[in-house]
Fold these 2 entries.
Entry 1:
Amino acid sequence: MRHYNAGDRIAQSINYVLLTLLAASCILPFLYVISVSLTPISEYIKKDGLVLIPTHTTLTAYREIMQGGRLLDAYQVTLFRVVVGTVLNLIFTVITALPLSRKSLPGRSGLLLFIVFTMLFNGGIIPSYLLVKNIGLLNSEWSLIIPGLINAFYLMIVKSFFEQLPEAIDEAARMDGAGEISILVRIVLPLSVPIIATIGLFYAVWHWNSYFDALLYINTPENQPVQLFLRQILLAAVAISGDAAEAANAVNPISVQMASVAVTTLPILVVYPFIQKHFTRGVLLGSVKG
Amino acid sequence: MHRTMNLLRRYGVMYALLIPGMLYFAVFKYVPMVYIAAAFKNYNVLQGLWESPWVGWQNFQLFFDGVYVKQIIGNTILISFYKLIFSFPAPIILALMLNAVTSTGFKRTIQTLSYLPHFLSWVIIYGLLVAFLAPGTGLVNQLLTSFHMDRMSFLTESSLIRTIIVTTDIWQSIGWGAIIYLAALTGIDPSLYEAATMDGANRSRQLWHITLPGIRNVIILMLVLRLSAILDVGFDQIFIMLNPLNQEKADVIETWVYRVGLQEGRIGLATAVGLFKSVIGFVLVLGANRVAKKFDGQIW
């Protein structure tokens, strides 16, 4: 075994301290955000904003952002986007990857080139915008789903995974008279649960986090997803603080901002412990050379 | 004829499965390439793309003669370069630090927490920046005040914006990026370390002669991938942090294209600049792949 001298021990201690600081920097900001969102304005002013743990709490900021139903509308759009979008992503990715994983398929390399080229060259923001406009998807929730139906990179990962499945099983099933579809449903899919779950999680997080496509394609407030709602609150905080006459029980604009950050982050923080392990595996599956 | 029928019987289902996907790539990836024509047109909303008059290279000329060209290309390359020298090594260092940890529980906890920022959108991260750096209410400014120091308007200060961009980039990606290096580290034969210890090599020599060579190929592959995307500096990140006061130091090609094209409506000019970026990017990827092949780690 390795032996440690004094220098090693010091190095090791510094290492532990630095790693602890890094981990703390990843989690403490959220505690601060939640504290500020719960702090009444009077206490906030008294303590000059240094409210690491609030002594009094209020839900005023949360009530404020719930008002008018905009947040709920935004959540509906995001939920639709994540659920419907991810399901469609997976269906399209799997049915496209399966034929491409058959090395004997005539024309396979040409089809692959057709896809790989889109990973290397693209028209850019404006041509994509013109396309979405021309096919009439502007301001529709579908503009957040259809243009991103297949991620070419994930498609290649799934394709490589299918290629690794033992061909013997496939052949045996065919001998028994199973058609391609039933091979897909009964044999390939059950064996591919790990990769499909991983890619599904990748797609879902992408849907949850994107805001740029919504910024481009959606102008109507009721169709904006949560991320855009948050962006607007962050950029227009002053406007929310309201009438000066109401200052006594006015809402603290920073609390409103932080409440918005909290409600946007919460779903991720809740599901994170459950999905975190799968992602690690996903990165490793993804790094398998295709 | 007979052969075609045979092929269809054998692969018909497979080809049928391919139709929706291929249609998707044709419509959503190749049609926009046709729309690049806008770069060579004086685009007019009323006339539409095909009726608008052709103007040759005029849009490109307009851009390269303009006052912004230096600024946005300079910002793009500079921010990219900063990310390369600071954000690229960060996950490698983290992986090496985690690798030196002997307690599995501690290691797993640190890893789990360090992945977290990867799952947050840039809008949320901007929200955290507001919590800490906002001029009136941010925690850092409250602390500065309580120490009787001057408040700083971090988020609108152009001299700080690049530092903020690079720092948040490291924070967001360090844990996630370390995964692949940790995987590579587990692949190093432990007997090498034992032999080195026998020969009297201390830990820093082991790091230099065993650990780093052990993950060299992964580092090179990641570096090549990184270099090929040098013009993609992270639109989502920069766009949310950009404001008129820090624009001078942080406006990059893509944020400029968005503003000029979709907010000012100069579609032709914006498409031309977007195309310029795509072509450079394409050349860089091809070049990077050639380099990667030499190290047996080609991208495709």
Note: Residues 238-248 of chain A have pLDDT under 50 and may be disordered.
Entry 2:
Amino acid sequence: MENKGKKFLINNIVPIVILVMIVMAAPISGLSGGYLVQEMISRLSRNSFLVLSLIIPVVAGMGLNFGIVLGAMAGQLGLIFITDWRIVGMEGIVLAVLISLPIAVLLGILGGYILNKAKGREMITSIIMGFFINGVYQLVVLYGMGNIIPMTNKKIILSRGYGIRNAIDLKNIRQVLDQSMVVKVGEFTVPLFTISIIAALCFFIVWFRKTKLGQDMRAIGQDMEIAKSAGIAVEKTRILSIVISTVLASVGQIIFLQNIGTMNTYNSHEQIGMFSIAAILIGGATAAKASIPNALGGIILFHLMFVISPRAGKELVGSAQIGEFFRVFVSYGIIALTLVLHQWRREQENKAERKKMMDMQLSGGEN
Amino acid sequence: MKTIGARIGVILAMILLGIFLFISGKEHEVFIENKGEKYTPKNAYYILDGEKEIKIKKKKKKREYIKGVNHTIEVRFKDAGGVEKKVVKEFKTKMGQIITINAAMIESDSWLKIEELKSKK
């Protein structure tokens, strides 16, 4: 019984630590329960798609895909084009998705190919790959757009005649998804359409895991060599998992930005990978195991901390800036802590496995 | 061969859907004015595509944004005899055109003025 409790504690140490911090900080912040619930509904609909896009590469054993930044860039390119062409409403959102799809697929293939060359070091490789593609993105957006790629909307072009402005007002598509079907539950406003899209993605992930491809990915995630000897096209399947993740991230970024209503052309995508990964890790996922409850629970915990900590910091020390520092420190600290804990758990498991094998050999020798 | 065909089919369908979305989601600029040749009502009221009713004063011009190709405008005003009139007209928008609707002349044939945009060189 004591062992079970200890195991539960070790397995869920990250969400438990964050929950304790939230429980301690919530009364200090002075924020009402109703306000926090409404904030969580809004933030769940804004971020879930992005965080859920991380699950499939984990299933395929590729760790946490910091390369979702690539997908986010593709989504932003779609949004730049529809803003330039003045396509508004739901049509604008769907067209942005259509434009971003081929770009996300190409970036996903490139990412998957590179990650296949760096087996075992996927996470760090995908971080660096994100930085590299970010450079290419900036070159295209800052120099190519208006110069090579024709742009007509003067509101989004820099005064020199080429390059996109630092911030783009997405008023043409602002909260189109969120406000297309709204339900009032008591005092809370629920964006039903966006939540339906997220629910559809959850069903897709559940269904996908049961398909042949999903089973292949799981087999690769468990042991690549055994999967290879079983006749699974390991490299192709790994590329596919990254392509799916990148495509989902591009759609996720469009959902995210339509909710916010403003796009920071050169920064919006940069933090996405880090924050989405922090959220899924806070939900209890590891680099080898992630599920839908991890993603959704993680978003709630992460954003509760995001909302509460600056106010709690302000109430405690009289400076909201301290709260900001606190949440940045916690979000990056959580990633480091979880990765360390994951490695420690793997070592413990390996140690237990070795001990078991030695015991078996010894007992076999005696017989 | 079958797979390649299916892939080409999907790409073509996506392109067609993209073109449809581009046309149906395109935002157009329309000018509404209240300036008649013989008679101009003091105030005219118009509803574009079933949206909110907007008041336009005598000899004023307003800019509106509408989405897609097919549109309706409903204009309400008092004629020279003080009789309340309500007229509904349909019009189409195309890329590269400036459309001006004259609320004061909505009953005549010259209610709609279409100008082609000149490209800058």
Note: Chain B touches chain A through eleven residues (CB under 8 Å).
